[in-house]
Amino acid sequence: MAELTYRDAVAAAIAQEMERDPTVFFIGEDVAAAGGAFKATTGLLERFGPGRVRDMPISEEAIVGAAMGAAMTGLRPIAEIMFSDFLATCWDIVANQIAKTRYMTHGQISLPLVIRTANGGGSRFGAQHSQSLENWAMAVPGLKVVAPSTPADAKGLLAAAIRDDDPVVFFEHKSLYAVKGEVPDGEHVDRLGSAKVLRTGDDLTIVALAAMVPRSLEAAERLAAGGISAEVVDVRSLVPLDTRTILGSVRKTGRLFTVEENPRLCGWGAEIASIVADECFDDLDGPIVRITTPHVPLPAADELEDETIPTIGRITSTIFERMG
Amino acid sequence: MIIDRDGSATTGIDADTRIALFRVMLEIRTFEKRAYDLFLQSLVKGTSHLSLGQEAIAAGFALAMREDDYTFCTYRGHAHTLARGVPMPGVMAELLGREDGLMAGKGGSMHLTSVEHGVMGSYAIVGAHLPIAAGAAWSAQVRGSGQVSVCFFGDGATNIGAFHEALNLSAVWKLPVVFVCENNLYMEYTPIAAVTAVANPAADRAAAYGLERILVDGNDPEEMYRTATSVIGRARAGEGPSLVEAVTYRHGGHSRADPAKYRPESEVKEWMARDPVVAYRAALVAAGVEEPVLDEIQAAVLAQVDDATEFAKASPPSPAALIETDVWSDGGSAWRN
After folding, report:
1. CA B298, CA B208: separation in Å to the nearest integer?
2. Which end of chain B offers a freer environment for a tag, N or C, measured as fewer CB atoms within 10 Å?
3. Among the partner residues B104, B166, B334, nearest to A65 by beta-carbon distance
4. Looking at chain B, which residue has its C-alpha nearest residue A96?
């Protein structure tokens, strides 16, 4: 096991897959010479050359459009959208073209491509550079949606996404890029559609994603000190969704709390709450509770932003209150 | 719109190609007329965008393309799909929403696709396919396959951002892609001139990407064929992209619901007098092709369209079992375990 940062784990996954498969190409704004706006792709240009690691103009439609055209004709491209908020500028290509083409063509066209993007708040960038947009992608049939919370998952899930024959939108959390963690040595490929129980507990289940995972783990620690035993499930992949792991945990604990960074309405937790209510209602000992960012655009100022996104304090106090 | 014609419309193209141009145009014309009749009989549902009047562009380009070149077209894509040799029965059955349709009824008129014929899709959001066609050209470039990507779009697409993004990237990367603007003078219901800063929406913008200004008569199949041969040849030789503006005219409305009353009668009359299929038949006769030869082609094409129609009508409706197939590459649609 080597200790890597989340950003280095991203670069390691891309390098691992480019080394293995000559059809893997990587494009995006400032990704080559500059090594990425978040330095998550440093060294790739030097290692694989400008033919395979290419800087693009600020043309998001051209970035994902080129990836799509290349994916349908024999390449396995990785396209970076610098901030997930910019997906709005190319959402036609993502949601109307990439997501639907396989279906509309009755399976004639496959699109093995990955759209990597820096997602989420905590950087004081304001409302247009901080959003958590996993649920945009989750709402479109034909897109796989992944959001890792650790360096090991960043590497393993990104490698799996690159090898997957379907389009994957890969949300990297920008406040996690500097986080360090153990990453397995050698080739590391994980599996899409598998959630992970990161902490076992008996009284309640917390289901969380990306940056909300470490906060939920810390909240579980504080709850334990108060005599409440929380199980923490890292969803990791929204599509495909590992409902088996989530339902299994809720059946055991009898309570479900989702912790979501997205604004309230139609967050991914709402879908999970609906599935749990439908399929293990009789196992529930109390209401399902969603802990989310309020339904507002994110403010920029540090103290405002910190209070908007679910904090360890809010997660802990909400659970204490609702379990009380 | 004034287009310089070189007066040598039938020179430099061999007899077989000329007959093939005529035949492909006639196939499109006859097919599109039949598709319209089938709308009127409510056998074709939804919407459909016909290429009546615009056949010369599809025929001229398709005949100049290599078998493994890529076609990307818009929702007005029946013509380009047929021109690449996609068999008519499957296309007609797709319009009727039948099991034997090209995509088993899952795509419909606006999304005709036949990868085995190089038809990489018909795209129904204006402008979306320009960057996608550039991506296919990029793939051909890095694979060294020598393939060229040809992307057809309407005049309206020149005012959407994806046009600019795709043209710029293709020029910067010198991609083997040809962008073909079929300027039929109307973006849906509005004259393109009323909403565009320049007179020729594509040709006048070529300079912005360091490209040659290419403005051609889209109703002249031989001019289209020569143009296509030249720009595709350049792309294949590694000389980069081209942007072609082919001026033409829709004989009907934008889509089947549109009677096209917004067009001045004199303009319609003037363009109908330049019907590309009628004009080309006359040109071939003037060049010495025997009338019976052309009549025979006409009869054969009509029989082909009749057969396709019967095939489509006889094909069963697409089965409900297809609804949840092919979202994913494993053939299914599961999003959870």
Report:
1. 44
2. C
3. B166
4. B125
- Between CA A287 and CA A272 the distance in angstroms is 13
- Give phi and psi for A48, each to the nearest 5: -115, -10
Cα B68 to Cα A100, B179, B233: the distances in Å are 24, 17, 14
- CA A158 to chain B, closest CA, distance in angstroms equals 18
The answer to whether A108 contacts B114, with C-beta atoms less than 8 Å apart, is: yes
Contact A65, A106 (CB under 8 A): no
Closest CB from A93, A109, A166 relative to B115: A109
Strands B190-191 and B186-187: antiparallel
d(CA B207, CA B243): 10
Cβ B121–A109 below 8 Å, yes or no?
A: yes
For every one of its 337 residues, what pLDDT tens digit does chain B have, with 9 covering 90 and above?
234 344 444 458 999 999 999 999 999 999 999 999 999 999 998 888 999 999 999 999 999 999 999 999 999 999 999 999 999 999 999 999 999 999 999 999 999 999 999 999 999 999 999 999 999 999 999 999 999 999 999 999 999 999 999 999 999 999 999 999 999 999 999 999 999 999 999 999 999 999 999 999 999 999 999 999 999 999 999 999 999 999 999 998 888 778 889 999 999 999 999 999 999 999 999 999 999 999 999 999 999 999 999 999 999 999 999 999 999 999 999 999 9
Phi-psi group of A58: left, alpha or beta (phi > 0 → left; psi -120 to 50 → alpha; rest → beta): beta
How far apart CA B65 and CA A74 sit, in angstroms, is 20
Q: Is B128 in Cβ contact with A93 (below 8 Å)? A: yes
CB of A74 less than 8 A from some CB of B: yes
Measured between CA atoms, how close is A187 to chain B, in angstroms? 24
- Rounded Cα gap, residues A215 and A221, in angstroms: 10
Given the residues A106, A129, A173, A295, select the one marked as catalytic. A129
Q: Out of A51, A97, A103, name the one closest to residue B132 (CB).
A: A97
Q: Tokens 């405002």 identify what position?
A: A304
pTM: predicted TM-score of the whole model, two decimal places: 0.96
Structure tokens at A78: 């990785």
Taking an 8 Å cut-off on Cβ atoms, the answer to whether A69 and B132 are in contact is yes
**H-only helix segments in chain A:** 6-20, 44-48, 60-71, 91, 101-104, 134-138, 151-163, 212-225, 243-253, 268-279, 302-308, 312-323
ipTM score: 0.96
SS (H, E, C) chain B: CCCCCCCCCCCCCCHHHHHHHHHHHHHHHHHHHHHHHHHHCCCCCCCCCCCCCCHHHHHHHHHHCCCCCEEEEECCCHHHHHHCCCCHHHHHHHHCCECCCCCCCCCCHHHCCEHHHCEEEEECCCCCHHHHHHHHHHHHHHHCCCCCEEEEEEHHHHHCHHHHHHHHHHHHCCCCEEEEEEECCEECCEEHHHHCCCCCCCHHHHHHHCCCCEEEECCCHHHHHHHHHHHHHHHHCCCCCEEEEEECCCCCCCCCCCCCCCCCHHHHHHHHCCCHHHHHHHHHHHCCCCHHHHHHHHHHHHHHHHHHHHHHHHCCECCHHHCCCCCCCCCCCCCEC
Burial class (CB in 10 A: 0-12, 13-18, 19+), B200: buried
Q: Which residues contact B4 (CB under 8 A, 6 or more apart)?
A: none
Inform me whether the C-beta atom of residue A93 falls under 8 Å from chain B C-beta atoms. Answer: yes
